[in-house]
């Protein structure tokens, strides 16, 4: 694993936490350029990166994350941010929608949630902060296609957008996995998503939900 965070105290604290939890941190860097160099050298299973890093403290970490997604698709990327960067979130879940996560930094203080998200991304899944999803979907609440969904279908789609599997959604919503699968198929049909080979209807549904 590689950690990219320019705040020294937070970076060192995360390195210690991850080591205590059994994760092997092969590099800990403080800017986007060094993150790319370290990723090229080590090609880790997962990269954890802040969004805003030197020199401009705008989006260096996020741009590095997107480049890593493109150049090393087998490397999972977990982005940490103080704010919701709407214009990039949809790009992060492009492709097959796996091995990616986006958490607000406040979530890191909730160690269990942070480690759970890290494990999900490392295992090939996705993990999106509920608050990130809530803010992103606010602009799409009046879309005609989404308006066709029942409240339960919207619940299922929201959990999909957070990166949960059908089994996880069933547990969270206290329903059977077969019920979740039926809701998911209804969502895909109501959103008029294609069934052609090469398209993931699940990812397309999430992208529609995020307003991209």
TrEMBL record:
GO MF annotation terms: DNA binding
Keywords: DNA-binding, Phosphoprotein, Transcription, Transcription regulation
Pfam families: GerE (PF00196), Response_reg (PF00072)
Lineage of source species: Bacteria, Bacillati, Actinomycetota, Actinomycetes, Pseudonocardiales
Residues annotated as domain HTH luxR-type: 142-212
Record-given protein name: LuxR family two component transcriptional regulator
Response regulatory domain span: 1-120
GO biological process, one term: phosphorelay signal transduction system
Sequence positions bearing 4-aspartylphosphate: 50
InterPro entries recorded: CheY-like_superfamily, NreC/VraR/RcsB-like_REC, Sig_transdc_resp-reg_receiver, Tscrpt_reg_LuxR_C, WalR-like
């Amino acid at each position: 694993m590689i950690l990219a965070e320019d705040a020294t105290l937070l970076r060192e604290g995360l390195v210690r936490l991850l080591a205590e939890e059994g994760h092997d941190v092969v590099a800990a860097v403080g800017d986007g350029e060094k993150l790319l160099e370290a990723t090229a050298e080590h090609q880790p299973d997962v990269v954890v990166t802040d969004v805003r890093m030197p020199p401009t403290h705008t989006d260096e970490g996020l741009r590095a994350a997107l480049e890593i997604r493109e150049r090393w698709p087998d490397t999972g990327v977990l982005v940490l941010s103080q704010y919701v960067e709407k214009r990039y979130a949809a790009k992060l879940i492009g492709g097959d929608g796996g091995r990616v996560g986006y958490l607000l930094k406040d979530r890191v203080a909730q160690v269990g949630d942070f480690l759970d998200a890290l494990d999900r991304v490392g295992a090939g899944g996705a993990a999106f902060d509920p608050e990130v999803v809530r803010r992103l979907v606010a602009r799409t609440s009046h879309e005609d296609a989404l308006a066709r969904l029942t409240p339960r279908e919207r619940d299922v789609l929201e959990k999909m957008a957070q990166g949960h599997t059908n089994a996880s959604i069933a547990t969270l919503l206290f329903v059977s996995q077969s019920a979740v699968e039926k809701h998911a198929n209804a969502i895909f049909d109501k959103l008029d998503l294609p069934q052609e080979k090469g398209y993931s209807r699940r990812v397309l549904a999430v992208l529609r939900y995020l307003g991209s």
